[in-house]
Structures are given as structure tokens and as C-alpha cells.
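Database export, one record per block. Field names are fixed; values are copied verbatim from the stored entry.
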Amino acid sequence: MKFFFAALILLLSFSCKTTTEPEDFKIISTVLYELEQREWLAKDIYPIMPPPPESRKYFIESQDDLTPGVASVRFDTLVIRYQQYLTRISQRIVDSTWIFMATSNYLTGGPCKGCRISPDSLKSKPNYKRYEKVLSDFQTTELAELEISFEQIEYFGKYHLKSIDDFPPREDMYNGTLNFLSGGELDFTRFYQQDNLGLIYFSISNCEMDCGAGYLVLLERKKGEWKIFDIILQWTS
């Protein structure tokens, strides 16, 4: 009889694990594919300088110690270096079957303290206001970290997650010497849900420093499947 109960406990614990853990991975699969469809992920490693020419105005305005003319000349120099960089990495031989995003081995479970719905005007819309309670709890709830089971993540597109352990040190990761395509780094939190509403947070980085952004994903369950309602920018650097 003792053996029967012990076996039952083990079976129940295994069942819980297999039904709750893949939920996180299913959500990641959905988000990863959506990011690919929106073309938000880099198709290859980027240098520190964002792709020109869109960043020219921002660069000039951010150089408080330089006149606009001098800042513009400095930007032109960065543009030349950027083009040289693109030429150099285009000449390397790579496996282009997939594009790999480096990620930590765990989904973080800490409270998403900085997560919010912005701009504030969105909160007046019923479809966003309904997330108020679940978001408030997401900002304070501590969840257990979850080790990523890479083989359980289903991929619907070209982008795949790859352990950061399979990449060179970060200072060498963006120098154009990888033998496969990489869009940079992509890290997720645990998936958090209440009833038919769910949230997950992720951050992206595609250069060694100062090329990152964080996003809050709002999900809703329709006909038993989780669908993305919106993806909201939280910060950029």
C-alpha cells in the first residue's frame, strides 16, 4: 500500500510538471514567431552603432558637448565604419539555415516591477484596462525560476533559441566571427496568467552594449489557445 501511494505521488508530480512547464514554452514559441513576423528581430549580429541613417538625428541631438556640425561629421565616420563592418561580416561563411537567439538557461521568476501599460491613455480602453489586476499581481509575484527545456520549444519560423553557453564570451559574440547567424540575445520571464489573461516579459539585445529593449506581452485565451493581444515597449537603451 505504501508503495502504491508513493508511486501515485510520483505520477501526480510528473503530471503537474508536464502540464505546467510546457505552457511557458508554448507561449515563447508564439511570441518568437510573432516577433519574426513583425521583423523585430535582427537577421544577423549588429555592431554597437544602430543601423544608419535613421539614427543620425538622435545621435546629433545626444552629443551635448559637440556642435551639430561636428556631431554630424562624427556620425559620418561611424556610418563608414558601420558599412565596413557589414562588408566584413558578409564575407564570412556561415550556416544560414536558422537564426539563433542567445538566451539564459532559465526563465526568470522575479516580480516584473518595471512592467506597465503605456502610454497611460491606453488604460482608458476596456481591452487594456482588463489587464489591470493581472498586471498588478505580475509586478509583485515571485515565481520559481524554470530551467529551459530547449527540446520542448516548438519553432514555427527561422528563429531558434540557443543557450548562451553555446556562444563565445559576450565581448567576442558581436565581432562578426560566428559560424552561424545570430540575432543577438533574447531573454524571457515566466509566463503569468489569471483566468483568460496572461503576461510575459522579454528583453532583446543585439550588440555588446546599449542596443537593448524590454517588452511586455499581453495575451488572451480564445477557444482554448493563447493569442497575443499586444506587445508594449517598456524601455530602450
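Remark 1: Confidence is low (pLDDT under 50) at residues 2-20.
Remark 2: The chain has six helices and nine strands.
End of record.
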